[in-house]
Amino acid sequence: MAEAVKKQGIKEFITSIPYNKIGLKDLVSFEKTPRNIIIAIITFAFLVSFAVGVTLYLMHGHHAYNVTREHPWGLLIAVYIFFVVSSTGLCIVGSLGDVFGFKEYEMISKRAIFGSIVTIMAGFAVIAFEIGHPVTMLIYNVLTPGFTSAIWWMGTLYGLYLTFMIIEFVFLLKHDMRMARIFGLTGLLVGLAAHSNLGGVFGFLNARTISNGVFYPTYFILTAFITGIFIAFIMMGIRYRLSFPENAKRMLTNLAKIQGLLIAILIFFVTWKMLTDIYGGMPNRSEVALHILGSWTFWAEVVLAMVIPLLIILKSKGSAVLAMFWASLGGMVGVFFMRYNLVHDTQLKPLQMMKVREYQLAPEWVHYFPSAAEIMISLGGLGLCILLYYVGTKLFNLDEEAH
Amino acid sequence: MARYGMALDYKNCINCKACEVACKEENGILMGADKHRIWVGVKEIKGEYPLLDIVSSSFEPSQCQHCDSAPCQEVCPTNATYYDDNGVVRVDPDKCILCSYCMNACPYDARYVDDRTMTVDKCNFCSDTRLARGETTTACQATCPTKVRTFGDLDDPESEISVLLRTREHFSLKSHLGTKPKLFYLT
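Above: the input entities. Below: the structure tokens describing the complete assembly.
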């Protein structure tokens, strides 16, 4: 980059980034089909709910949330993970073309990299209202870093990752593929490190036997790739309004085949995780695993993110692109439950099992249901994501350019 | 510098909760707040009425275990949780970002959110109050009517706690996790 910037000068480098000059009028001038209007209304409603949720949080602090001492991490942590998993996944999908040089995936590279920027920004917007003191975090993350903390590594690496993704995207816009590859590869490696550290946040909890261990750091990378492919289907489906051109069909068919393999591996992973959790009746682990098997959210995750997409892929050998678009929408709902379950299940078992007051029952399972403010901020994150992506499609040319 | 720890002759506990009250008074803990800093756990009486096993009922005073290898300290992203010179695990509220990772990582559920500062708090062996004034006892220890608690320097072989730990059998909570707690339950 230094070379390229030196050649041009920073000001010229920035001003020469290709973008479309748009105003507010251009943003609201979309084709007024019923489908577009519904999406616009839903996005607006989500953004309003974000504002209301944030206001509630600013008025009441963490009391606006249903998080407790026994269940300190709630929906917002799950949604943050949902967004950053999406971001890492899109980064992997985007890298297939512009980093690893698979030509047919180049058509989605720019769009996926832009999507990875948008999703991680939505994730940061959500987590900013979960961390009690975000400004203190920015200061003391630098002044007194906790190098043994997975959260420190995860947060710092994700900050770096976002920077690299933005630089990569700029070079993609400028069609400087060499520099895009360098920053793309760096961003991908930093992103994977950040993401496995996010798994490590749970894996390092030796007090929580259900999460402790190497499973989550590796599982996070696998599920990120799966999530990235789901979003790739959604993005391309919206881009081509469900009538895919031949090259998009070819790419999506290949992506579906990769997805089939990844989901099969995921099912294998989850099955063995459950078996090893339950086998032998290890205290605090087997009963939690059995409890998870009895929860509908776990089966929502299994059916929506694993079974349905896999069946469609197997039946059509990956060629049912349209069906996969719809399965990917459902798959993302499944991925949301995957994240919610991960956070909630980790905290299911109380760490202190004795009652402390008379006329009280001894603690059993920890119950949690998100508050209205948590739900509103989470939906707002989704609204923000859709809005930023929409603005991006107007502002930049996200399609593949001719070489 | 000392290495403070506490021995609990927990079978002597009568669950009068004077320790909780003294702790609140000494350290300015919120009134009415449940399980803030210290608490007494109650083991349920086993059996069904009228065949109740009365001796199965016991009380287990608990709090931060001041682990030598504290998971809460390891996971803190800003080093807000630290070991002070006396080996006491402390929280610097100025650095706490309320990410709640420590609350999730502590195997003893010893941490809570102080609603006034909106930062995580826990027992600090009266480090801000009694120890800071040069005293060598904690409020909970000083007030206990049945002398459940013995607080002292584990590095001093002549201290009451060291003698107790040499002469009485004892155990630590969840010692299999390798946290090396400095709270010892005498049997």
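Note for the figure: Chain B touches chain A at residues 34-35, 39-44, 60, 62, 71, 74-80, 94-101, 103-109, 111-113, 118-119, 174, 177-178 (CB under 8 Å).
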